[in-house]
Amino acid sequence: MWYNKYIMSSVEEIKQSIKALNAEYAKIKTLPVEERKAFGEELNAKRIQLQQQLQEAAQVNQQLQASLQRAGQAIKYV
To answer: How large is the angle between the packed helices 33-76 and 2-25, nearest 10 degrees?
Structure first.
């Protein structure tokens, strides 16, 4: 179904972004000490945003599944 493909592609994009962000964390070791705090804070803010997007996608998926299940039950009784 279209909605499932859309949500799953969004989830996969978010997961890829999280993986890329994890690779960015490795760069912190190469930065001068005075730049590390700002760099880490920026990465942490991005990580939190991506985790929120992932949670939202999971919630939308659950809501759609529940709606479709209710719709399917309603059709059975018509």
So the answer is: 170
**Residues 16-61: tens digit of each pLDDT:** 998 899 889 999 999 999 999 999 999 999 999 999 988 888 888 7
Assigned token pair, 72: 């399917």
Residue entry with tokens 């279209």: 2
Q: Report the first-to-last Cα separation within the chain, whole angstroms.
A: 23
- Judge whether 64 and 7 are in contact, CB under 8 Å: yes
Neighbouring C-beta atoms of residue 67, cutoff 10 Å: 11
DSSP 33-72: HHHHHHHHHHHHHHHHHHHHHHHHHHHHHHHHHHHHHHHH
Is pTM beyond 0.70? Reply is: no
As given in the structure block, the two tokens for residue 18 are 């999280």
